[in-house]
Amino acid sequence: MTVAYPRKFNNSMSARDILKRVVENREIHMITLNRYRYNEQRSCKDLTDLIERLNGKPKELVQDLSRHIAEEARHAMWLTDLLVELGADIGKPPGVSYIDEFERLLDQDAYNSENKLEDGIIAALASINVTEKRGCEYFSAHIHALKEAPQTEENIKIRETIEKIFPEEAGHVRWGNRWLTKIAQKSPEHRTKVEQAKRKYAAIEQAAFEAGMDIMAGAELRRINKLMEIANTMSVWERPQYLMERLPQTLFAPELQEIRIEAAKRAWNRNPQEFVEKFVPMFLNGLTKTQNQQKTAKV
Known about the structure:
Blueprint: H1 15-22, H2 26-54, H3 59-85, H4 98-105, H5 117-148, H6 153-184, H7 188-213, H8 219-231, H9 239-252, H10 254-270, H11 272-298
Helix pairs in contact: 1-5, 2-3, 3-6, 4-7, 5-6, 5-7, 6-7, 7-8, 8-9, 10-11
C-alpha cells in the first residue's frame, strides 16, 4: 500500500530545520505553540462534525472517534494551560491557518450522500491520518530542538508538555493506518480507493502546510501549482468543478495580502534597517523560487 509521509517545506526545509529556528525566537515560539493549541482544539470540532455525519454507523468507528476527541481536547487543555502559565496569547493565531486552508481544499460535499458513506469514511480516515502524521513530525522535531536548546525552566516546561502529547498523536497515526488497511483488505476495489485517497489527501495536506508557511512573492502561483497537483489525483470529471470552486480564492488570496502587510509592518517597526536588508530580499526571493519551479516543470 501507498505510504504517505509529509514532505519538506518547498522541498528544502525539514521540520527540524524549522523548529531549530522557532525555539530561538520566543515570539515565534509562542505563536507556534498557540497554533498547536488552535489545531488541537479545532480538531475536536471537526471530529464531532464527522461523528454527526456518520450518524452512528459504523459503531466501532464512532466509538474510536469519540475517544480521539477526548484525547485532542486534553491536548488543547494542556497547551492552553501552558500558554496561560507562560503569559502568552491564546487567541486565534496570526497568519494563514493550516487547518482552515486544509478544509478549504477538501471536497467534503462529494461524500455527503448516503450511498457514498463508505467513500466518505475512507476520505475522512485518509485526511485525519495525513494531518496526524504532520503533527507527529513537528512534535518530534520540536522535542529535539528543545533538547538542543538552553535548558531554561520555560523550555523544559514546553518540552514536557509536548512529550505528553506526542505518544497519543503517534497512536492516532497507528489507529488510522489500521483502519485504512482493514478497509483496503476487503477487495481490490477497496484497495484502489484507499490508495487514491492517500495520494489525494497527502497532496491537500502538503498544499495546506505550505500555504501556512509561504507569504513570499509568487506564493499565489505556487498555491495554484499545488491546486493542480491535487486536481491531478482526482478523476477527470471531478477536476473542473473542484478547480472552478477553489481557483479564484487561491489566485487572489485576500487573507494572504493582509498577512503580508501585517508582517511588513511588524518587520519595519522592529528594525527598519533589517526590513530593507533582510525582509525585502527574503520576500522577493519567492519570485526566484517560482521561476525555478517553472523551469523544473518544463524539464
